[in-house]
Design a protein that fits this description.
The complex is a heterodimer. By secondary structure, chain A is an all-alpha fold. Chain A has 11 helices and 2 strands; from the N terminus they run H-H-H-H-E-E-H-H-H-H-H-H-H. Chain A has one domain. By secondary structure, chain B is mostly helical. Chain B has one domain: Orthogonal Bundle (ABC transporter involved in vitamin B12 uptake, BtuC), CATH 1.10.3470. Classes of the chains: A mainly alpha, B mainly alpha.
Chain lengths: 291, 360
């Protein structure tokens, strides 16, 4: 029973990691850049939601606030692309890595100024109530997290495989100049992907905040999401979810069965091992580079 | 305006291109040498701090600026250098020997760690090293018997040939120690760049494939670059820990590595001067902010302000001046030297299109 309980809570945590990792993968798939601020996007999304819902701020109904928060975050993502990231168009990955790290610091600073540094709770209907099945206690939030994550991953996956915009995104990541020749408005497509990634981050943020308290350093779970994305191969959406689940499940088991002090390093050790032995993840997409 | 008429190939790799440049650096060194008589103890401490950051920054500069590999994990190597140095000193090794040895050991360990990590490139290396930096914190706690864990360690008594180096009793002694280390590291760095190895670094930065075609052993050169970089950063870390007086697992957390990276980007990637300019920014920014917050009252004293402002400065630099402070200075200098013939488009960034590294 204990095993099942650990598994379920691990899966729910893993889904949040998976969602943040999805954001990494989306941006990586479409712009070949890695957004080191994705965790902070998630934190910001959660706080935007909190600002809309909690009574001391705006006090809007939760279900009404969800689309509103997604919209705000999407607009923010697009604006960020126009104002900051578009200047980096065609520049190396390295520059964008450093830029997004700086962006994360700025986002954390702004969120700290607006919402303070104390941990707060989102007034979420998901946070109330739990279910018992097969001797396992499941909170409503955990179930919501798992369901939403699976649906979202499937949707995004289909979006990349089937729709014209999804294909345009893949094309513009593979070769920007060739994509231009094919008539794809590469810059606008990249704006769209940043908006989409911000929306996914917002979903992750809302679910994360429903599971427990929230503070401005919540964005640091982005580092665990890196582990998830790398395990999944960084270019694969289902891979990112799988990676998230693996990291999420390992954590509670490590803290249960390993001596204290060793348990919290388990995800990072796994990350380094994967990078050493399967550098491009379990769902590799990279082959040798040709000139 | 000075012209360089080149008559031998040696002129391209000379330590100083002409007597004028040599004179300038000699004058700078002379000013640095008499600095303890010019400014009071507080500012001397700040300058010491700047030089310590610069030494650590030069290490990362060698890897990121010269070889083009991003590392977000150099705080781990700063910690390694610092703990090794103190552990050696506590074992009875004299300070100078312990200091040199900790640099060498950190470099060797760094190169060993780098061997698997350097099969990765670009973003993957950044992530792997970030994981390393986070692991370092926990590893220090796990290795409590050697490292002192959460309780930390204190700086042992430091003597060089019987002369005591003490931050509080004699700030100038610390200043001279750090100045000597900084000058030596900068000289080693400069000489590296003039050697075939340094040119191999630059070749790898500019294009790994072309470097390989020119006969550079990419894996080997990267490992050497990583090792040297770790050695310098380890020395910087040792100085930082010893100067602080006490340190524990949180002194060298991963934010320090990110700060170090931000510092060299602001200073100017790929320039020795960049490491020093960046160090000036990072050391004096908190002071500048605290002066500002005194001016504007409590409204300015917000927690996290420092990192926020730092992030904004960095974003502005990456977008507007990717070559950093030193790059800006070079542009101004060239504009002045060529006056009135400088053209606006001289430094225009080349338009480039990105191609994927996957699915080739």
């Amino acid at each position: 029973m204990e095993f099942l309980q650990l598994l379920v809570s691990g899966l729910a945590n893993g889904c949040v990691y998976g969602l943040v990792a999805l954001g990494f993968v989306l941006i990586y798939k479409a712009t070949e850049a890695v957004n080191f601020a994705q965790g902070d996007f998630m934190m910001l999304g959660a706080f935007v939601m909190l600002g809309l819902v909690n009574p001391q701020y705006m006090g809007i109904n939760f279900w009404l606030a969800v689309p509103l928060a997604l919209l705000i975050m999407g607009a923010l993502g697009y604006l960020l692309d126009i104002t900051v990231l578009r200047h980096m168009f065609g520049q190396s990955q390295t520059a964008i890595v450093i830029l997004t790290i700086a962006l994360g610091f700025v986002i954390r600073f702004i969120a700290g100024v607006i919402w303070g540094h104390e941990p707060v709770n989102l007034h979420s209907p998901l946070a109330l109530g739990d279910m018992r099945a097969f001797g396992v206690v499941l909170s409503l939030a955990d179930i919501a997290v798992i369901v939403v994550t699976v649906i979202l991953t499937m949707l995004l996956w289909q979006f990349f495989q089937r729709t014209k915009l999804g294909l345009a995104m893949q094309a513009s990541s593979q070769n920007q100049m060739a994509a231009y020749y094919m008539g794809i408005p590469v810059k606008r497509v990249q704006g769209a992907i940043w908006a989409l990634a911000a929306i996914v981050a917002c979903v992750a943020g809302i679910l994360y905040a429903s599971k427990g308290s929230l503070d401005i350093s919540a964005g640091f779970i982005g580092i665990k999401a890196f582990a998830a994305a790398v395990i999944g191969g960084f270019g694969s959406l289902p891979g990112a979810l799988m990676g998230g689940l693996i990291v999420g499940v390992i954590e509670p088991f490590a803290s249960r069965y390993l001596p204290p002090g060793y348990s919290q390093i388990a995800p990072y050790v796994l990350l380094i091992l994967v990078l050493i032995f399967r550098p491009h993840g379990l769902f590799a997409q990279v082959r040798t580079k040709k000139v | 305006m000075r012209f360089h008429f080149k008559t031998t190939y040696d002129q391209d790799i000379r330590l100083f291109p002409d007597w004028w440049t040599f004179g300038l650096y000699a004058a700078l060194l002379a000013v640095m040498l008499i600095l303890p008589w010019l400014i009071d103890g507080f500012f001397l401490g700040e300058v010491t701090n700047v030089l310590i950051w610069a030494v650590a920054g030069l290490g990362l500069m060698l890897l990121t600026g010269q070889t083009g590999q991003v590392s977000l994990g150099h705080s781990a190597f700063m910690a390694l250098g610092c703990y090794l140095c103190v552990i050696l000193m506590e074992a009875g090794v004299p300070f100078v020997a312990a200091f040199v040895l900790c640099g060498i050991l950190t470099g060797v360990l760094g190169a060993i760690i780098a061997l698997p990590a350097l099969r990765l490139h670009g973003v993957y290396l950044a992530i792997a090293t970030l994981a390393l930096a986070i692991l370092a914190d926990d590893l220090i706690v796990i290795l409590t018997p050697w490292t002192g864990g959460v309780a930390g360690k204190f700086t042992p008594e430091m003597t060089i040939l019987g002369f005591e180096i003490n931050r509080w009793a004699n700030p100038a002694s610390w200043y001279y120690l750090v100045l000597i280390v900084a000058v030596l590291v900068a000289l080693i760095y400069r000489n590296l760049l003039r050697s075939p190895l340094g040119r191999a670094f630059a070749a790898i930065r500019d294009s790994e494939i072309s470097a390989q075609a020119m006969g550079v052993d990419v894996a080997h050169t990267k490992a050497v670059a990583f090792g040297l970089s770790c050695a310098f950063t380890g020395l910087g870390g040792a100085l930082m820990g010893l100067y602080a007086g006490a340190f524990n697992n949180e002194t060298f957390n991963f934010l320090l590595a990110i700060q170090l990276l931000m510092m060299i980007v602001i200073g100017g990637l790929g320039f020795i001067h960049g490491a020093f300019l960046g160090a000036i920014v990072i050391a004096f920014l908190p002071q500048a902010l605290s002066i500002l917050s005194d001016q504007f009252g409590r409204a300015m004293s917000i927690p996290g302000l420092e990192m926020g402002v730092f992030g904004m400065i960095l974003i502005a630099f990456i977008i507007l001046e990717p070559m950093g402070l030193y790059g800006r200075w070079m542009k101004i200098r060239i504009w002045l030297e060529l006056f009135p013939f400088a053209r606006r488009d001289m430094f225009r960034r080349q338009k480039s299109y990105l191609k994927t590294e996957r699915l080739r």
